[in-house]
């Protein structure tokens, strides 16, 4: 059997669209159609229902998808074994929260380029759900997740391992009333404040908002952004407070554009960073090298919890 047909089949199954599959494979849409028809003819079963909204796997298609992926993984392993004497090479796509993308990972990419110049790392800024979907669909090779909840991330398909912890900082502009107080802020003090948090699906932002709204008489105004810079800029402009990884506000704390808000009671818990990968899908040597580098680099970087300029900065 021509493995190109299996590649087209698995790609169409992931994308659900002949147009999207053609774009992903750099083929004409008519070629994708021919491949699928040829495979259906060879196997003697329809693999997709052609609907106005896209291509939907039939029962037979769903049964065969895992088998097709195993065949393609076996072919990839065979090709990798044939080239084991050569340098590690290839493209590795990593999904990661924007905060890690901007602060922790540039040094890793620079180190990898020196150690493995033929490995290209493609970073995709994404939230937890988008990363999990990317791993399941095959669009991502690896992902970093910032979440304390393993129940939603661990599954028969996805495996995760803790690799680091990120400290959080609740901050506001120096002129904000809560930034000039002599005492720590209680959760009730936050009840009527305006908060700029990262978009829904950001685990620590979601948990913080839930805790805010659970306070007696709580009625906070919450604006969600898909960008760390947007949330940070709104807080620095004096419009409200934001909760972000300490590394992303370190420079603003140093130069006085932001100040920490200390909370009464237990401090905000650090957020675990987990490396996630697909359990069944074979990992190419380049992906294995990137995974090892991520574990090593994040463990070393996380020891400082964002560095003394953030971890030990005065709260008010």
Notes on the structure:
The protein has 12 helices and 12 strands. It has 316 residues and is an alpha/beta fold. A hairpin with a 2-residue loop joins strand 1 and strand 2. It starts with a helix and ends in a 5-residue tail after the last helix.
The proportion of residues forming helix, as a percent range, comes to 40-55%
Enumerate the strands of the largest sheet in spatial order, edge to edge or round the barrel: 4-3-5-12-6
Rounded radius of gyration (Å): 23 Å
Distance between the termini: 68 Å
Largest sheet: 5 strands, mixed
Number of β-strand runs? 12
Give the DSSP E fraction (strand runs of 2 or more residues): 15-25%
Catalogue the unreliable spans: 304-316
- Determine the structural class based on helices, strands and strand pairing: alpha/beta
Q: Note the total helix count.
A: 12
Shape category: elongated
Order of helices and strands: HHHEEHEHHEHEEEEHEHEHEEHH
Mean pLDDT score: 85
Name a few traits of the molecule:
single chain; about 325 residues; alpha/beta; three-stranded antiparallel sheet; about 45% helix; disordered C terminus
In short:
With 316 residues, this protein is of the alpha/beta class. It contains twelve helices and twelve strands. It has a five-stranded mixed sheet, with helices on both faces. Strands 10-7-11 form a three-stranded antiparallel sheet, with helices on one face. A two-stranded antiparallel ribbon has the order 1-2.
Question: Topology of this protein?
Answer:
Layout: H1 3-15, H2 18-25, H3 29-43, E1 48-51, E2 54-57, H4 59-82, E3 90-96, H5 98-103, H6 105-115, E4 119-125, H7 128-137, E5 142-146, E6 158-166, E7 168-172, E8 194-198, H8 203-214, E9 221-225, H9 228-236, E10 242-245, H10 246-254, E11 259-260, E12 271-278, H11 285-302, H12 308-311
Parallel strand pairs: 3-4, 3-5, 8-9
Antiparallel strand pairs: 1-2, 5-12, 6-12, 7-10, 7-11
Helix pairs in contact: 1-2, 1-3, 1-4, 2-3
